[in-house]
Amino acid sequence: MVSPTVRLDLALEIQHLLFPGEFPGVRQPHAHDRLVAAQQDRLLIPRQVVAHLRAIVGEEGLLEDSSRAAPYECDGLAHERCRPEVVLLPRSTLEVSKCLALLHSHSIPVVPRGAGTGLTGGATPVEGGVLLGTARMRRVIEVNAKDRFARVEAGLVNIDLTRACCDEGLFYAPDPSSQAACSLGGNVANNSGGPHCFKHGNTTRHVIGLVIVMANGEVLDLSAPEVDPVGYDLVGLFVGSEGMFGIATEVTVRLTPTPEAIETLLGVFASLDDACDSVSAIIAGGWDASALEILDKLTIAAVEASVFAAGYPKDAEAVLLVEVEGSAVECHENAEGILAILADHGVLEVRRAQSERERQKLWAARKGAYGAMGRIAPDLYVSDVVVPRTKLREMVRATTDICTARGLKILNVFHAGDGNLHPNISYDRRDSDELRRVIEAGDEMARVCVEAGGTLSGEHGIGLEKLAQMKLYFSDEDLELMHTVRRAWDPSQNMNPGKLLPIRACMETRTRPVPVEASGRAGS
């Protein structure tokens, strides 16, 4: 199943595309022209292809009925929708390989999907394409406690990995707020983060091996744990590629020892500015926090009105959730140092978790914030931008003003430790004018954060949401280089087309998602 030459071929292809003319023995594909020509002629997936796919994955592994495909119309970016013609749910690397080989031979686009918890439209289907999900691939293949790594299938839910290794005194550090639902494969695609990534780092710091099925069905086996890879770091390059390089079917990750002690503090503030300034002071003071999370007044109200209520003070303008970990001595020293800084910045009250149950309750409220916001309106737009920590208060105020000026309700909950803001807008996508204002606000928030020295995304990726904003941050040369690397992995450019990288005009009409309403299949 595994081609021993795939890795070398891919490395040579990258080298040749980056430096054309210097390696005359390596082919130079003209895949873009072939893709455009193929797409112009394709309207629907041929029935014989569907029959062959069904033979590969079985009756339960192929969804074609409109009602069964409906849940796959979108991910967390609810206003971008397209009902897939075919949903594939393979059970193994071999089945993924056979499916991609068949689809590649017919130039049919493929949109990979993990658990569908992404927030930027990265898993939005495209017209005339297939959606391939890894939800049935959830095995824990190996937990190696001695060498502190685990090998799992890509569909495994994030929190289930920690459950599988906690008895060994280990855990998986990246902890997105959706960790009870999101998959490891999706985390790899988006280089996901989470509250504790302030200390432990995003997904890319923990992935040390992958099994990748390329666009043409070839299998690239990089599953052996490599701390210091020889040659190009193909694993590192793949993490964060948003499904455009291929599909990861197995993931090898580094496991982290469970800390001896953990201290969890909840600081209560009369102003959001004071909470933001406290974060900068904690970091400037050299205190070792593992998480620094801020929730504003409206978010607190939403949480306390939901099943996630944890006794957050509803009259506070903001709360700062702080966690430190390490040895008992380290925890005590860091907690005391942080308490002093909070006092210097006007903290009204500090609550200290007295048990693991209290700690879990505080964190359940923080991670349940997005679910709690779902009670306010039918839809939720979650932005993801990063700004310098010293500009936290300025940027929180700026994003609030942007939304207020458009008559939108904004709630703030964010990873303050690394300046990763998550302005949340509750809205109803059925109201076309309100949806227009939400999209405008999202674009404007991205622009002001980049102008302040920030970046477009901290952990959610680009997907469809921020395609237009890529040119705010990257030059044309930067983007062309990214296209070149993408072609090295997938010359056909059929893997998740229309995402992450701005679309060239001649491709646009056939790779953009088509709304369900416009496709004539609404309500079918």
Topology:
Blueprint: H1 6-18, H2 31-41, H3 47-57, E1 62-63, H4 66-69, E2 86-88, H5 93-105, E3 110-113, E4 130-133, E5 140-144, E6 149-153, H6 158-165, E7 170-171, H7 184-190, H8 197-200, E8 207-213, E9 219-222, H9 234-238, E10 247-254, E11 256-257, E12 261-269, H10 272-284, E13 291-296, H11 297-304, E14 318-326, H12 328-344, E15 349-352, H13 356-367, H14 369-373, E16 379-382, E17 385-386, H15 392-404, E18 409-415, E19 420-421, E20 423-427, H16 432-451, H17 470-473, H18 476-489, H19 505-511
Parallel strand pairs: 2-4, 3-4
Antiparallel strand pairs: 1-2, 5-6, 6-10, 7-11, 8-9, 8-10, 12-14, 12-15, 13-14, 13-18, 16-20, 17-19, 18-20
Helix pairs in contact: 1-18, 3-5, 10-12, 15-16
Q: What distinguishing features does this structure have?
A:
524 residues, alpha+beta, Uridine Diphospho-n-acetylenolpyruvylglucosamine Reductase, domain 2, Uridine Diphospho-n-acetylenolpyruvylglucosamine Reductase, domain 3, Alpha-Beta Plaits, 4 domains, seven-stranded antiparallel β-sheet, five-stranded antiparallel β-sheet, 19 helices, 18% strand
